[in-house]
Amino acid sequence: MPGLLSDVLAWVxxxxxxxxxxxxxxxxxxxxxxxxxxxxxxALFWLQLIPHxxxxxxxxxxxxxxxxxxxxxxxxxxxxxxxxxxxxxxxRAVAAMGVVYLPFETIPxxxxxxxxxxxxxxxxxETVAAQTRFLTELLGYSPQxxxxxxxxxxxxxxxxxSHRIEISVVLACTxxxxxxxxxxxxxxxxxxxxxxxxxLAIAVPIxxxxxxxxxxxxxxxxxxxxxxxxxxxxxxxxxxxxxxxxSFFISDRIISQALAVVALVGITYLVVHEVPELLTVIEDxxxxxxxxxxxLRSELGLDERA
Length: 306
Hints:
Elements: H1 4-24, H2 28-56, H3 60-81, H4 87-106, E1 110-112, E2 115-117, H5 120-138, E3 144-146, E4 155-160, E5 163-168, H6 176-188, H7 193-223, H8 231-237, H9 246-274, H10 279-290, H11 296-299
Antiparallel strand pairs: 1-2, 3-4, 4-5
Helix pairs in contact: 1-2, 1-4, 2-3, 4-5, 4-6, 5-7, 6-7, 7-9
């Protein structure tokens, strides 16, 4: 996230979701009001991120999703406030997602009793970078590993003649966001623990492995400038003037992000066969988009499971 405002808003919104989940267990109407407030705060959080994803990050997919998240959050809060109780599940899921994700995003390194505790984000980024390096070298490439802008050993240095190309594994490149989504959703539904664990055993390893393939693909593609296609058009489309960025925009912003959407749909399909209770969340999302009610459990032939 881009700064202190995002961190504060994120923690306040997630804290309100958690408070709503606790309140809902004791007083449903109080929980409803607190959760509604949480959705409003969540909308504000996404609103202030729009310039980052559209103008700084230059990601069309993430930018559009961020823009859509603002009215979607407000609409979810409105529906919940007006009695759509199934949205308590989605609300609890957002609370759990934030609890998983935010420590990596916001907790810095600190000293405790004379010992330095590294920042969680740094540990995760360096781990993914090291594993990406292993796969890259396995494929016959040998970029140099250097310290990135944040002081972590998470950056690949490629040379194109005398031109340096640096590719960094940042937090968004670790798969943590997608993992947090599935952890949150599975944690939020009411289902036997053994099925929840099976669902996690499907989602987490697949996401992590596919993400390593993604970071390896992007690093090699950009480092070797394999996608120098439609250079002028791509530079215009992404508002850039650096021709060395064309392979990055194509490999990451177009190919990888499009495939990520397909992969998440496929993983969701696999997970709901173990935890069909997740279909409640999907049905709510479809209702918000179309205005129609759905019974996906029947349509997919998934019976109640013990």
